[in-house]
Specification:
It contains twelve helices and five strands. The protein is an alpha+beta fold. Strand 1 (294-300), helix 10 (306-326) and strand 2 form a beta-alpha-beta unit.
């Protein structure tokens, strides 16, 4: 079983410091407990510290009532401070023990500093010190001078509150950056998943369109041989056509299995299936020859990044599929791949008649253009001047890592 780590006392203290006082859980309960403890400390100091006359009923009332507003110190810090001062000023004026009444004032000052802006904290500090010294001057100049010397505690409490406030803002900014980074990672993961699905969809389209077209052409050859002259049946030609169909099915099944294995992986989101490359162009040309096309191929490129090689493979595959499907019987197809000026220049041309005027346009040309754009390249396709159809593409060889 998974062990649960129990937070230590130090972790709890740091969590209480880092937590925003306005959103802290059990705020009222904790402030009630703080007011009771502070009032108890004030009672002890009033009984055992001899820096004024012993409190009577009025003194005890002022001392204890000054701690009551601390219960609402988080929601109304400035009114709470004014209420505490309103009780503490007459308490000091009547010369009760001065040390006993400072605890509530310090807590209220700290709350103002930790929840307010520095300018407000500075003005409140100046006002409290000025008011306290003025009250003490009415009692005696000696007491006022002593309070002025002790005002360093007021400044220290205010600085502590400001420092804690800045520290909480710093921690909150770190947490916000971490959450933003986490959201960015999740969005990047979703984007990569979407790109991977799009890549798989393109691969499946190219694979199925190519294989089904070849099977259709080879089946037509077999049907033509069977129906042309049944009495003089060319068994060898029929057997070759059927063998070609079986070979095309096996090749399509293997590539389809390789593509779909990506969907079954449960590893990292960056896991990708093997990409087809330039080494598979020979198989594409051979498959087109089996379908009746006369293919000439020229490949003059040393090496291409995986993404560029996969894009070139799919473009050639779709172009050969279109040539077999639309160029007429036994078209002459030329495939050229040349590395020039830091880019792969690809050309697939045929001498056929091209697609019929009334045919329904498919997604082959759109897919080829998307393939080229995915690696930062361009693609053009259209009828040739002397007849036939040509597909040309320029794929930069320096953007493969970025696009892949």
């Amino acid at each position: 079983m998974r062990s649960v780590q129990v937070p230590t006392t130090g972790n709890r203290i740091m969590a209480a410091i880092n937590r925003d006082p306005l959103t802290a859980p059990h705020a009222i309960r904790n402030d009630v407990l703080l007011a009771v403890l502070t009032a108890g400390l004030a009672v002890v100091l009033a009984l055992f510290v001899d820096d004024g006359r012993r409190p009577d009923a009025l003194g005890w009332a002022l001392l204890l009532v000054s701690h009551v507003p601390l219960v609402w110190r988080r929601r109304r810090p400035l009114p709470v401070l004014l209420a505490v001062v309103a009780c503490v000023v007459p308490y000091h004026f009547l010369e009760y023990p001065h040390t006993a009444a400072t605890q509530a004032a310090y807590v209220a000052l700290y709350t103002v500093a930790v929840t307010g802006r520095p300018l407000r904290t500075l003005l409140v500090g100046i006002g409290v010190i000025t008011l306290s010294v003025s009250v003490m001057l009415t009692i005696s100049a000696h007491e006022a001078l002593g309070l002025l010397k002790a005002s360093g505690w007021v400044v220290a409490v205010l600085f502590l509150g400001v420092d804690v406030r800045f520290y909480r803002q710093y921690v909150a900014s770190i947490v916000e950056r971490a959450e933003r980074a986490e959201r960015t990672r999740e969005e990047e993961a979703r984007r990569r998943v979407a790109e991977e699905r799009l890549r798989i969809a393109r691969d499946l389209h190219d694979l199925l369109a190519h294989s089904i077209t070849l099977i259709g052409v080879q089946t037509s050859v077999a049907a033509h041989v069977l129906s042309a002259d049944p009495e003089r049946l060319d068994r060898e030609t029929v057997a070759k056509a059927l063998d070609d169909i079986a070979e095309t099915c096996r090749s399509a099944r293997g590539e389809l299995r390789t593509t779909l294995e990506v969907l079954r992986e449960h590893g990292s989101p960056d896991a990708r299936g093997p990409l087809p490359g330039l080494d598979g162009l020979t198989d594409l040309a051979e498959a087109a020859r089996l379908a009746g096309a006369r293919v000439e191929q020229t490949v003059r490129i040393r090496q291409a990044p995986p993404a560029v090689g996969a894009a070139a493979y799919r473009i050639v595959q779709e172009a050969l599929t279109n040539a077999v499907r639309h160029a007429g019987p036994e078209p002459a197809v030329r495939v050229d791949l040349v590395e020039r000026e830091g880019a792969l220049h690809l050309s697939v041309s045929d001498d056929g008649t091209g697609p019929g005027a009334g045919g329904t346009p498919g997604f082959g040309l759109v897919g080829m253009r998307e393939r080229a754009r995915s690696v930062g390249g361009t693609l053009d396709a259209g009828p040739r001047t002397g007849g036939g159809f040509e597909v040309t593409a320029v794929l930069p060889l320096t953007t493969g890592e970025r696009a892949g």
